[in-house]
Each structure stands twice: as C-alpha cells, then as structure tokens.
Amino acid sequence: MVLIGVVLAATYWAIDSFVQIFMTQNNFFRPILGVDVYDIFTRIIVLCLFLIFGSHVQFNINKRKKAEKDLLESEEKYRNILESIEEGYYEVDLKGNLSFFNDSICEISGYSKDELKGRNSREFMNEKDAQQIFEIFNRVYETGTSEKSFYCHLINKNGSKRAIEASVSLIRNPASNIKGFRGIARDVTETRRLEKDLLDTYRNLQEARSATILGLAKLAEYRDKATGSHLERIREYSKLLAIELSVKSQYKDYITQEYIDSIYQSSILHDIGKVGIPDSILLKEDRLTEDEFEQIKYHTTLGGNALSMIESKIEGQSFLSIGKEIAFFHHEKWDGTGYPQGRHGDDTPLSARIVALADVYDALTSARPYKKAFTHEKTVAMITSDKGTHFDPDVVDAFLAKQKDFNTIREIMLDTHYSIGESVQDVE
To answer: Is residue 181 located within the same domain as residue 307?
Structure first.
C-alpha cells in the first residue's frame, strides 16, 4: 500500500506538471467539458486515494477478523484437548477461584462443573494444606517460576481425603499482566497407598533379614557363652568404620548407605563357621595347641562355604554376599600373613578389612575365661602399631578418628562378669 501511494504521488506530480505547462485558462477543453480539466484530475486523484486507503482499512479489518476467528478456533481446540486428557487441568484467578477446569477435576473432587464453577480452591482443603497452597502460589506469583510438582490433599464431596500431585504456572493477558494460575492435578491416592504397602513390605523383609542373620550368628555365639554382647558390639564398630571411610574420596562411590546397612547386619556372621568346631577346642580355657589352633582357623572356611551355599539358592544380589566375604576373610592381614588364603593388601575385600579391626578391638578390650581385658588406651596403641601390617592403613585412620565413639560403645555394652587387666592370650 505504501508503494502504491508513492507511485500515485509521483504520477500526480508528473500529470500536474504537464497540466500546468500545457493547459491555459482559455484551453480547448473548458468549453466542451464545462469545467477545468485540472479540477477533474484533482477529484479523480482524491477518489483514487479514498479507494486505495479505504481498501487498505478494509483489508486490515478482514485480516483482524480472520485472526480473531483463528484464535477462537485455536482456543476451542485447546479446550477440547484439555477436556480429553486424563489428568486434571485447572485455571484459577488471583483469588484462587476456579475459572476453568476439565472433567478430570470433577472426577477427583466428586463435584459437578456447576458445583465447582467460581468456588475457591481453599474450600476443598484443610487449613494446613490451604496454607501450603497459598505459599506455593505466592512464590510462583513473586518469582514467575513455575512449580513443576508439589503434593497436597483435597477433601472431595464424600468427605474422603485424596492425595494430589499438582503443578502450577502463571496465566498472563496479552499485555503480559498476571491474571491467574493454571496447572495439572492428578489423583495419586492409590499410588501413595501402594507405595506405603511396598515400603511396609520392604521393612518387614528387612526385619526378617535381620532376624535371620542374627539367628544364624547366634548359633555360633550360643556355643561360646563367654562372648557376651560381642556380636552387638561388632556391628556397631563396623558401622562406625564404614561411615568414616565413606567420606574419603576413594571410597565415597563404593560405600553407599546400602553398603553401610549391609555391613552392619552381616558383620555378626563373621564367626558363623565356629558351629563346626568341636566343643573341646572352642570352649577350651587353656592356651590352644598348634594343631587345635589350625582347627580353629578352619572356621573361616566353614563359615564362608556355608553362606556361599545359602547364597547360591537366592536369585540376584543377596544380603549374604558381604556376610560371605567377612566370614571367609576377616582373619586376613594387610601384609599377607593372615589366613585362610594369605591375601595381601586390598586383595582382601573391604568389608573383611573393616571387620578384622572391629573384631580385634573387641577381643582385646573384652575379658574371657582365659584372659583379662586390655584398656581402651592400650588397645588403641596396639592397633596403631599394627597399621600397615595387620590392618589396612585407611581402616586404622578411620578407627583413630572414631576411637572415642568406640570407647563409648564399649562402655555402654560392656560385659561386666570379667575384670579389666593387663594379661592376654593370643587373640588370633
């Protein structure tokens, strides 16, 4: 249109110049037409301008009407899509009054569209949930950032509480002013119930697992009543060491919470193989002969084999995996002089290296019929001197960092029927 106007103006200027040059007041056309040709030409030009700009205005009006029609059709299509989705869709004004919602919202709430239209969303919540929703919507309003997922509870028409997972974002008008909120809501009541049932089942399995492990471990402990609370202390010591090691860079990806839980439960299986050692050796109060000590050493292989056989009957990763490692290798030494295989350094599984220190600490600080107990301070000094020979240096460092906690556990769970002294037999 601008180009046409420019061309028309140029044409008008050219013709006007021609008329001014060649037409005089007594020109040939005035007697014939009765008017000045210049006036006629001017009127024609004005008429053309009206036609051009009039058609331009009409074109813009038609274009705007088409855009409005397309927008209405798009909105209608959008509304139809929202009505057909399974999730609940809602729109509220700045006061929280429902302005639009689909059939799924009606299904969740139990109310019809007529009953819901214009009602405030807070009417369907208790005070705690209503306050939570207010804080979330207010945060979205102030920051302009959508809340992709939050949980709340709605009270539906029959009075039952429904667990809802929802989202919320801003609605803006064409001028970008905030006029309300919109979001998706889905009823997750059944999902939450199933999750709770699954969690309860998992907890029951964990308790059954713990009871099974403890029952297996007690088989050996009942053979040697002098061990007192040995098993309970061992798992507390092992857990302390595992937690301390987990913060070190070389272990943080290996020692997970699951690993810590497993070593806590499985560490008490370290001497399960003693059920296969004759009472005459296991319960002997005097120093063992060399041959008897060799038989005692065999408890690691007995225990490891027994747990391996049980584990082979279980599909997938078993809680007995760590227990098996501990039973087999908790008497191995860092310098390779331990038993049953004489493993060196980190060829011995970490779980066994942890329990090795925990077991020796408890053996040294506990009284037995054949020995008195060492003090905590004496035991710390002995373990420190064996760093890098008997014990993994990293495990010793973890022990030294947690030695006060070791002593606290020892004092709380102390076996009082034997005295503390300075004599001890070979703790192997």
So the answer is: no
Mean pLDDT (10-residue bins), the chain, 428 residues? 55 57 51 53 61 64 65 57 74 90 87 89 90 93 92 89 92 90 90 86 75 70 64 94 95 93 91 87 83 92 89 71 94 96 96 97 86 92 97 97 96 61 38
Same domain, 135 and 88: yes
Alpha-carbon distance 113 to 73, whole Å? 23
Supply φ then ψ for residue 89, to 5 degrees: -120, 135
| Residue 273 DSSP code | G
Give the count of domains, the chain: 3
User: What own/partner pairs with CB < 8 Å and gap ≥ 24 does 248-251 have?
Assistant: 248/394, 250/394, 251/350, 251/394
Q: Residue 69: inside a domain, yes or no?
A: no
Tell me the backbone φ, ψ of residue 81, rounded to 5 degrees: -65, -45
Q: How many other CB atoms are there within 10 angstroms of residue 362's CB atom? A: 26
Q: Which residues contact 386 (CB under 8 A, 6 or more apart)?
A: 396
252 and 290 belong to one structural domain: yes
Peptide bond into 174 cis (omega under 30): no
pTM for this entry = 0.57
How many residues does this entry show for the chain? 428
**Rg over CA atoms, the chain:** 44
Q: Is residue 234 part of a domain?
A: yes
